[in-house]
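A.,

Following up on our hallway conversation. Structure tokens first:
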């Protein structure tokens, strides 16, 4: 059975290459090429961009990206069993797919990519948040990528896009919203995947801002936010106490010392980070 791109169906590919998903690799395969093509379209205009994909598995999203006109896809896959299937996709799209076998946490794929670069991936559940954090915290900003279109567990997607006062509002929301414009652009039920996970999933599109939304030193902001949300139910005068005498500092930027982290908007966290930095 062939698919819209003329290649075998993904179910046939999995059967031919014995690619049963492995739980220890966080694998849940998306096999509907209509869905993967839709995700590729949500990533924006691909014709003039190189795409970094992590965890392509049997190539569902890879094929969607190529069908939707991606200039070039660099796919990083840790599971050696998937390499042959991905190479078959590459043969179908000569010169447009580079497959790298390895761990995305250990590799630098940038030597294979030409700007402008977008990231698009159905990230393995077990490394998704760590990869996102790395991509959001480069040594210099703007980063190497212009946008990221990433699949996460719905819970993670809600944490990325949460607003102040929301139960999901925390470090990840601050990190993402400080430097990007993140939006949930698609929801997927468990039955869309093989095997079906126990949770719903969502696709988040994050567009890199040319500069952070508010000025702050990245390391100081991260330290303040981590401390504040580390004990999120405590008042800030208590949760931030390990950073020194904070009550006067909080009041200097308009934050009540009795406030809790979930009540503080991004702009005030950035102001607090600047105050800490100025104090030295």
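Then the amino acids I'd put at each of the 280 positions:
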């Amino acid at each position: 059975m062939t698919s819209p791109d003329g290649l075998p169906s993904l179910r046939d590919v999995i059967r031919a290459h014995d690619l049963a998903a492995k739980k220890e690799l966080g694998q849940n395969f998306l096999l509907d090429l209509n869905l993967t093509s839709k995700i590729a379209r949500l990533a924006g205009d691909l014709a003039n961009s190189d795409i970094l994909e992590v965890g392509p598995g049997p190539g569902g999203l890879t094929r969607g990206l190529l069908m939707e006109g991606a200039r070039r896809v660099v796919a990083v896959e840790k599971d050696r069993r998937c390499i042959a299937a991905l190479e078959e996709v590459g043969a179908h799209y000569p010169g447009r797919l580079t497959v790298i076998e390895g761990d995305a946490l250990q590799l630098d794929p940038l030597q294979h990519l030409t700007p402008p670069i977008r990231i698009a991936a159905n990230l393995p559940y077990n490394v998704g948040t760590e990869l996102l954090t790395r991509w959001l915290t480069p040594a210099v900003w703007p980063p190497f990528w212009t946008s990221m279109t990433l699949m996460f567990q719905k819970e993670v997607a809600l944490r990325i896009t949460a607003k102040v006062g929301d139960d999901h509002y925390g470090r990840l929301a601050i990190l993402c919203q400080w430097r990007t414009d993140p939006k949930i652009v698609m929801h997927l039920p468990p039955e869309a995947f093989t095997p079906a996970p126990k949770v719903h999933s969502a696709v988040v599109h994050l567009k890199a801002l040319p500069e952070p939304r508010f000025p702050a030193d990245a390391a100081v902001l991260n330290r303040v936010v981590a401390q504040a949300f580390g004990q999120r139910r405590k008042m800030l005068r208590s949760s931030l106490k390990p950073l020194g005498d904070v009550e006067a500092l909080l009041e200097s930027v308009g934050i009540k010392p009795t406030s809790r982290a979930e009540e503080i908007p991004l702009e005030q966290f950035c102001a607090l980070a600047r105050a800490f930095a100025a104090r030295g």
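The chain has a mean pLDDT of 94. Curious whether your intuition agrees with the design.

B.
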